[in-house]
Amino acid sequence: MAGNQREMHRKEKRAQKDRKNKIIVWTIIVLIIIALAVMKIFEININSVKEHFTDADGNFTITQGVTEDNFPYNIDSSRNVTLKDVNKKIGVLTPTSFTVLDSKNADVKYTFDHGYSNPIMKSSGIYSLIFDQGDKSFRLDTTSDNVYENEAKTNIFCADVAKNGSVAYAAASKEKKCDIYVYNKSLKEQLSYSISDGYVIDIAINDSGNKISFVTVNSKNAQLKSTLYTMNVGENEIKEKLDLPEGNVVEIKYSSNNIYVIGDSFLSVISNQKKVRTVYKQGSISTVAYTFTPSNELVLIYNSYTNSTDNVIARVNSNGKIRKEGKISGNVKSVSASSSIVSVLTGNEIASFKLSNLENTGSTAVDDSVKSICRMGTEVFVHRQSLIDRSEAEED
């Protein structure tokens, strides 16, 4: 008897669900009929509507066009996520995977699980280099395929990738302190050099893969000393050795044949692999955040002292000239730039500025769930919790 009652209950629930689904379907159909009638009255072109509701195979579907895109896109982690523009697609590195997304509709163009314990991503052009910092594994990928995966002889400290697919990395040395290597995209060794003057903390390679620079740190008179070296690939000798100001080097990066040297308390530019130009002298700034435009021009955010919320945003060209400065208040969490707009994430908003004059063009309110941003063209993509999403439109 009890069994019959349960069966009747299940049938009733199925009937209720069927009725609900029919109501939804008929509601959509009625709305479409009403819309068609209105368009007929106002002489709207029915062919354009038909195209909007037709899929790629020419089949009529009421789901086509209902959702503008597939954002937000779910990712497998909420922490330690890197979001980058990789050749006009969204590169997403998590502690377990790497994914390339189409920025228009979040279609997955390429994805894999890397299995690295401390993955770091560098990108240039169509290439993405992912290496396991402190371990031996590294791999080179395009936005659609793997080029190779390889293991270094010793643990990797830092690495970089050129626009032509050449890879430079510094690793622990069995005989000296560090070994420097450069490989082309076919994994042919282009350079091998060992150094004993200090440990390499950062390395950079130019777009064409024929020049490298790296920074070593050594202790002298109980103080840390940073030195920048430049080399031409194919020549097994140092081209120039340059002492850097006191303070920590955050990153070095090529822009054409010049090198940005971003410190936590200074900014310098190295021209022609050998000449130092001081942009902000040591101690005059406290670096907060920075990014590079698609043409590798630096956008730097700094303030006058640590923990200040009164920030300066500066556009600095590769010759070391400060082209423009502006102001932004708040605790800056992330900055990203397209070829014409710079967007800055603070604790409560995404503020955008024209790259040309650094004038504010508007802002969008956000909460503290947004961890980082990636500006691509006219859009801003955000990482919040375990999602990659588009930001809302900017408000003037």
Set out the fold topology:
Blueprint (H helix, E strand, L loop, with lengths): L1 H40 L4 H7 L20 E2 L7 E5 L2 E5 L3 E5 L6 E6 L5 E6 L2 E6 L4 E5 L4 E6 L4 E6 L5 E6 L5 E6 L5 E7 L3 E7 L5 E10 L2 E10 L7 E4 L5 E7 L2 E6 L3 E5 L3 E6 L5 E7 L5 E6 L6 E7 L5 E8 L4 E4 L3 E5 L3 E6 L5 E6 L4 E7 L2 E6 L2 E4 L6
Antiparallel strand pairs: 1-32, 2-3, 3-4, 4-5, 6-7, 7-8, 8-9, 10-11, 11-12, 12-13, 14-15, 15-16, 16-17, 18-19, 19-20, 20-21, 22-23, 23-24, 24-25, 26-27, 27-28, 28-29, 30-31, 31-32
Describe this structure in words.
The chain has helices spanning 2-41, 46-52, and strands at residues 73-74, 82-86, 89-93, 97-101, 108-113, 119-124, 127-132, 137-141, 146-151, 156-161, 167-172, 178-183, 189-195, 199-205, 211-220, 223-232, 240-243, 249-255, 258-263, 267-271, 275-280, 286-292, 298-303, 310-316, 322-329, 334-337, 341-345, 349-354, 360-365, 370-376, 379-384, 387-390. It has 396 residues and is mainly β. A hairpin with a 5-residue loop joins strand 14 and strand 15 (211-220). It starts with a helix and ends in a 6-residue tail after the last strand. The strands form eight sheets. It has a four-stranded antiparallel beta sheet, with no helix packed on it. It is built from two helices and 32 strands.
